[in-house]
From TrEMBL:
One of its GO terms (cellular component) is DNA polymerase III complex. Pfam families: DNA_pol3_delta2, DNA_pol3_gamma3, DNAX_ATPase_lid. This is DNA polymerase III subunit gamma/tau. PANTHER family: PROTEIN STICHEL-LIKE 2 (PTHR11669:SF0), REPLICATION FACTOR C / DNA POLYMERASE III GAMMA-TAU SUBUNIT (PTHR11669). It comes from Filimonas lacunae. Belongs to the DnaX/STICHEL family. GO terms for biological process: DNA-templated DNA replication. One of its GO terms (molecular function) is DNA-directed DNA polymerase activity. Residues 448-481 are annotated as: Disordered. Coiled coil: none annotated. Signal peptide: none annotated.
Amino acid sequence: MCLVFRTDAGKGGGNFKDIESGVFCFKKYLAVDMDKFIVSARKYRPQEFDTVVGQAHITTTLKNAIKNSQLAHAFLFCGPRGVGKTTCARILAKTINCESLKPDGEACNQCNSCRTFNEGTSLNIHELDAASNNSVDDIRSLVEQVRFAPQAGKYKVYIVDEVHMLSASAFNAFLKTLEEPPSYAIFILATTEKHKILPTILSRCQIFDFKRITGNDTVDHLQSIADKEEIKAEKGALQVIAQKSEGCMRDALSILDKIVSFTNGEVTYHNTLEHLNILDHDYFFRLLDYLMQQDLAGAMLLYDEINRKGFEGDLVLNGFAEFIRNLLVCKDPRAAVLLDVVEGMQNKYTSTAAKANGAYLVSALNILNEAEIHFKMARNKRLHVELTLIKLNFLQQALELSVENGVVAKKKRIDGPLALKVRMIPSLQQKTAAATVGAKLYIDNQGGVARPPQPNGGASGGSMHNGNGGFTNGGTSTAGNPGMNNVVVNTGAAVAEPQGRAPVVPMNRTALPAKGKKSLLDTLRDKYGDQYQIEEVKEALPLSMERLREVWDAYAQKLEGMQKPSAANTFRLSKINIESEVRFSVTVNSLIQQTFIEQERIILLDTIQQHFYNRSIAYYVILNEEEEAEEVPVNLGLNSRQKFDKLSDTYPWLRELKDRLKLELDY
């Protein structure tokens, strides 16, 4: 450390006595305070497995392995930063070399091996930082050290931290030693990015996945340290620190040290928020009240107040989105366990969530998420946030309005369940010919078909479509529709079972919506509706072998034109057998042929159904591997020798020319 004092003593403006006293005080501060102070992350670093926080699943496994003498030769500790990977590696290295283990598998901390480890003078434990020693020469030097047995103790332990930083050549140099190390060598690798390690390294290690430390465990550990250091700490402040650390105990302890220095040993909730630059949730409660009341001016002024306190727009968007998420969680009591807020705020969140509309919260969360994504690309950050607040301010009004027939109106509130809107389908079952002869079918503008009322107002024994999206019992309409124009069709004969698709009935577009304006859909119908003709209902053709073979061969020809000769040959070789009026079978001789047929099923079946005007036609494939497929002549072309022989037969002098010039054919 270099200490520089600037003085103007030569000009009569300095006082050497003051400088000497200042240097003396500074030296005293260095000697007394700086030498004794150790950051909490180092001072309270766990020395035993039982003191490791939040990793019981790993410490229990390691203790049992030590007690049962079932240690692997290589370990890989992976997980987020600051969760105890290197700490557990050091504890494991100390414990396996302990000369008198405790019954629970912990080190005694009394033997010579434990004392030398605690003092940092042990020769059996070597730590290597792979981030700064990642070359192949560093790994070769480590491999050379492995050859020598430990001077004292059972094992030589090599801890390689940040192992994912090793180069590819260093990994390759490490492979053989890691696979077959000496019996006294144990490797402990630690990393935060397991996916960057070679699979050959992973397969040689026993992998332990460390998890993030929960908020409750972090708060309990911070509280115990505060009690030991005689620090007054509010539980709300410790919970904020735990949330800020995001499961990293080292970060939590560092934050605690900073806040203790900032607050002179008294850690309060508000001081913690101020030091960590975290926006208090009270602002979010106020902002939500303004938005729910559609008080845009109040919301904008509150954002200005927050901005003048030094909080950027992205912090406001992110914090408000998290606030809305917490309200959504509180809507369901079963999900209340997911609420991660300061103690004492749960009731306030629950009461606010009960007043808020769930649809509004979901829509607001979506708007905030989009705004946060596009925040970095916005040139005017303040305007971007204010535009988001404007959207949220009028969001409630947008959710309550709807557009019907071009008119903006308030959504109608329906207490009962909504009925399913269905369109009446004409019965496909023919009743009796006598009951339908001379009957009239009423076809409304919605495409529904209904029978007329029975004589004498009698019931027909069933329900019928009334053209207004509802049904009537006994032919009596329950609702009128002034915009419906019924078309009466006199059948004059029995209604036969339809064989194809139902006829298309054009819709009546004479009725205009409210205010006499046509909608865009009606305009398009008027413009292009005449281009579409009413589809004619055609009678289904019988399934005959002659017609089916004709369609089948035509499809094979189509495949050949699509440069699929193998599929075309398969279609020609297959055998067709009609099973019924709507079903036939296709017999093939190999799995390849079956695959070709199945690949064309959708288009092929649609082609056959269109040809016979029957959508009920189907087929299935039979695999018959016993029969040999007929050979199909394939034109493979002529080679050079065959071409020369044919030309020589036609032109004899060609062979003589070849012999005189001593030419050879190019194969």
